[in-house]
Amino acid sequence: MNAEKLRQDFPILFQEVNDEPLIYLDNAATTQKPKQVLATLNHYYEMNNANVHRGVHTLAERATKDYEAAREKVRDFIHAKETAEVLFTRGTTTSLNWVAKSFGDAFVKAGDEIVISHMEHHSNIIPWQQLAQQKGAVLKYIRVTEDGFLDMEDAKKQITDQTAIVSIAHVSNVLGVINPIEELAALAHSHQAIMVVDGAQAVPHMPVDVQALDADFYAFSGHKMCGPTGIGVLYGKREWLEQMEPVEFGGEMIDFVHLQESTWKELPWKFEAGTPNIAGAIALGSAIDYLNEIGLENIHQHEAELVAYVLPKLQAIDGLTVYGPQAAESHTGVIAFNLDGLHPHDVATALDMEGVAVRAGHHCAQPLLNYLKVSSTARASFYLYNTIADADRLVEAILATKEFFKHGAI
Ligand SMILES: Cc1ncc(COP(=O)(O)O)c(C=O)c1O
Question: Structure pTM?
Answer without folding.
Answer: 0.97
